[in-house]
Amino acid sequence: MLTASTIERAVRAALEEDAPWGDLTSEAFLPASAHAQASLVAREDGVFSGGEVFRAAFALTDRATEVDLRVADGAPFAAGDVLATVAGPARAVLTAERIGLNFTQRMSGVATLTARFVAEVAGTRARIVDTRKTTPGLRAFERHAVRCGGGHNHRHSLSDAVMAKDNHLAVLQAGGADLTTALRAGIARLPHTAHVEVEVDRIDQIEPVLAAGVDTIMLDNFSLDDLRRGVGIVGGRAIVEASGGVDLGTVRGIAETGVDVISVGALTHSARALDLGLDMRVS
User: Fold this and answer.
1) Cβ atoms of residues 202 and 191 within 8 Å
2) Are 90 and 35 in contact (CB under 8 A)?
3) N or C: where does the chain have the smaller number of CB atoms within 10 Å of the terminal CB?
4) Coil, strand or helix: which one is 152?
5) Which of the following is catalytic: 127, 133, 155, 184?
6) What is the pLDDT of residue 282?
C-alpha cells in the first residue's frame, strides 16, 4: 500500500501545509550557500519505520539533499543509535526537518507499539492485526508501520472485504428475517472472491452466523471464558477473531483462548510518537 506515489502525495501536502510560501526563517537568516549535515538520532529504544518517507521529505524540498538510511524499516534500535544521515543545502534541510521527523516519529511509534503486542502473544496461534481506526489520509503509512512491528493488516477499506457489524445486523433483522437467512441473501449478491466476516457479541449468535457460510467470525467484547467457549463452538469452521478490550495487559490471555486473530485499534489510534531528533552540523 505504501507506494512511491502515495508517499510523494502525502509528503508534498505536508510540506505545503508547513511552508506554503517558503521557510521565512531560513531564507532570512541562512546564506543560500550554507551546507548542512545532520544525523537522525534515537532518543529512546524502538522499532524503525518510515525511512523512505523521511527521505522523501528532503528530496521533495531540494533534490540536492541526500539521505543515507542506516537502518531498515522493521529493524530494532537503541537510544543513541544513528538511524539516518542527511546532507545538503542548510535551508532545505531545515525546511524539511519537521515534516521528515513527524512522519518517521509517528510511524516508528506505531511499529514499536505493535512489536510489544506481537511479543506478548509469542508462542500462541494468534496474529496481531490493525483496524480502520487510522489517521485520515495516513492509513497506508500507519499500516506499513504495523507490518514493520511484526503485525498484520486487516481489510484496507470498506471496498475490499465484507465485515457485517452489530449495526449492520440490527438493520438486517429489523425486517423480521432470521439472521442466517438475512446473511445468506447478502452473501448471494457478492462475488465469489469476497471474504465475509461477521461480528457477534453473544454466544447464541455464533451458530446462526456460521450456518450462513461466513469466512471469519469476530467475537466482540467476549470474556475470556466466552472466548474459549466460542472457539470450541466454531470448531475450525471459520477463522475466529477477537476484538474489544485489548491492551498490553489483556492480549496474552486473549491469545491463550485459541483465537486466530486479535484486532487492536490501539496500534494506530493510541501509539505515541517516538522520540527521534535531528542533530545538525552546518558548514
Assistant:
1) no
2) yes
3) C
4) strand
5) 133
6) 76
